[in-house]
Amino acid sequence: MSALFEPLALRGLTLKNRIVVSPMCQYSAVDGFANDWHLVHLGSRAVGGAGLLIQEATAVSPEGRITPEDLGIWKDEHIEFQKRINQFIEAHGSVPGVQLAHAGRKASTYTSWLGKGHGAVPEAEGGWQVVAPSAIAFSDSYPQPVALDAAGIKKVIADFRSATERSLAAGFKVIEIHAAHGYLLHEFLSPLSNQRTDTYGGSFENRIRLLLEVVAAVRQVLPADFPLFVRISATDWTEGGWTPDESVQLSTWLRDRGVDLVDCSTGGNVEKAQIPVGPGYQVEFAERIKREVSIATGAVGLITTPQQAEELVANGQADLVLLAREELRDPYFPLRAAHELGADVDWPVQYERAKPRR
Ligand SMILES: Cc1cc2nc3c(=O)[nH]c(=O)nc-3n(C[C@H](O)[C@H](O)[C@H](O)COP(=O)(O)O)c2cc1C
């Protein structure tokens, strides 16, 4: 029996296997609207057999976009096309999830491949004033943020709540709050980007406050049987930054506030952090949090082979395996993995004649 192809139940939802398409920005939206690209991109990965697809960082407000081309869910008009994508995903046996995001001080940047420029988009070219816990830019080429005031913080929380309501209307079945990669919620967690002196900065309890308030607002509008994930950067990989120990502690708070799974990534808040990148280099964080906190975890980062994915589930290091670039290389990774691991899974009926026989 393959552990990777064991179903996983999270509250009222059952995933058919442990393979997740990790959220990946496509920078292909106009005014936040999904279009045919997103349908085909996500749809083909549903056909490819992943148990869960987490749609790219989807902005809860226009100013929360990384680039002007990000997907968004800040207005009701965004719902209709998202609904169509999600119906397609579900019709093909997968589950649609969404990563709700605010890019904070890393917002208002150019999509690199458009050739319009690099770094900060000026306001004259459609950029906007970015916000952060403190007025500290990510780097010289990034926009200069203003520190959020109390009203601004309230708005962020309300935006996550409204985005959750729209996500429910659009038919998403998993919500992931993006608190990783140096975006707004991670910026509050890390003392390197959060130098506030009010109740949102300083102590550990103060730095995690905004994330906990967002979690509470989101959980409040979710049905009781609906799973909630949080993606964190388990370490800043930098002296004086957010630490693995803090991630363990935070995960306990998240668990006790109705979060079902911690998706363990790292980095993104410090431009020149030294990151020991290699196969499965972030698995240790998923493993430690799962063991020490008794919460489900997702492992991500340079997981590229069926055997590697199988072993980390079989060894109890993580409950879900998220693949990003390997799923771009091969949308049929799950079908291929099932064959290699000897799991008998259904192929799309249209492709049945191509299913390898043992
Ligand atoms: C094209 C691309 C876009 C990405 N966009 C997001 C995103 O929207 N949200 C996020 O949390 N991570 C994003 N990531 C990071 C991936 O989800 C993943 O954590 C990372 O690529 C490591 O996994 P991998 O080695 O399987 O690619 C992106 C990665 C890629 C390659």
UniProtKB/TrEMBL annotation:
One annotated GO molecular function: NADPH dehydrogenase activity
InterPro entries cross-referenced by the UniProt entry: Aldolase_TIM (IPR013785), OxRdtase_FMN_N (IPR001155), YqjM-like (IPR044152)
Keywords: Flavoprotein, FMN, NADP, Oxidoreductase
Cofactor(s) named in the record: FMN
Residue ranges occupied by any NADH:flavin oxidoreductase/NADH oxidase N-terminal domain in the UniProt entry: 4-341
SUPFAM superfamilies in UniProt: FMN-linked oxidoreductases
Protein name per Swiss-Prot or TrEMBL: NADH:flavin oxidoreductase/NADH oxidase
Native source species: Hymenobacter setariae
Lineage summary: Bacteria, Pseudomonadati, Bacteroidota, Cytophagia, Cytophagales
